[in-house]
Amino acid sequence: MTDITITTEFIKLQDLLKLANLVGTGGEAKIVIQNGDVSVNGEVCTMRGKKIRPGDTVAFDGKELTVSYAN
User: Fold this and answer.
1) Residue-level pLDDT at 70
2) pTM (2 decimals)?
3) Which residues have C-beta within 8 Å of that of residue 40, sequence separation ≥ 6?
């Protein structure tokens, strides 16, 4: 599991996938999210603008990400 730190209240799902280098572009993120290939907290999520907050878990392509605040 990879921990991604953010300095804001939340990060949009598509931006998290780009930040973690799981996709190359926003367009690619849009496609994999809308295809139902991404899950948030164990449930498939098709909203690319979904707000991911610290404590949430995102899974895609066999990888799991958690989000936390930067200290």
Assistant:
1) 85
2) 0.93
3) 13, 50, 52, 56, 57, 58
